[in-house]
Design brief:
It contains seven helices and three strands; from the N terminus they run H-H-H-E-E-H-E-H-H-H. The chain is mainly alpha-helical and 161 residues long. A three-stranded mixed beta sheet has the order 1-2-3. 12% of the residues are buried.
């Protein structure tokens, strides 16, 4: 991601800060959870939930062993679909576990009445991620930026700017 001039774009700076503080994987998780029904379709989304991404492995919860078996056969197609949607090799494997799938929630509404374009992480979680930043102004600014981080990764054209 080379800058076109003497200054780096805000997206480049935020991306490097997110990587430095270990936030990039968590942001991918939040995007994946937010976009899950659109990515995999409603039937699958109501029977599987992305819980975590660790070491390029996506951990999915399924309600029972029948869905666990079904998704075992769908792993290659799911991996291809998720990585192509991310625009990069985000996950290399899917680990399936039986457990309770959280109930679907409606996206938060903005004051204008339209759906918010991003998933909101709990403020305690954001505070935990930004606690290591010594400068209070920078910490406050990054907290605001993380809370409003877009729900989709930048396109290749946006990332190359």
């Amino acid at each position: 991601m080379a800058a076109s001039g003497p200054f780096d774009s805000l997206g480049t700076i935020l991306s490097s800060v997110a990587k430095r503080f270990g936030l990039d994987t968590r942001l991918h998780e939040l995007r994946l959870q937010h976009d899950w029904p659109a990515l995999v379709g409603e039937p699958l989304a109501s029977h599987a939930w992305p819980v975590d991404i660790r070491s390029k492995k996506l951990y999915l919860l399924v309600p029972n062993s029948v869905w666990l078996q079904q998704l075992t056969f769908l792993k290659p197609a799911l991996l291809e679909k998720l990585n192509s949607a991310a625009g990069q090799p985000l996950v290399t494997d899917i680990v399936l576990r039986v457990g309770d799938i959280p109930a679907p929630s409606t996206p938060p509404r903005s004051p204008s009445g339209s759906a918010s374009p991003h998933p909101l992480a709990p403020s305690e979680e954001i505070a935990a991620h930004t606690a290591a930043i010594q400068d209070p102004d920078l910490r406050r600014y990054l907290t605001e930026v993380i809370a409003t981080y877009p729900s989709r990764p930048p396109s290749r054209a946006e990332a190359d700017r």
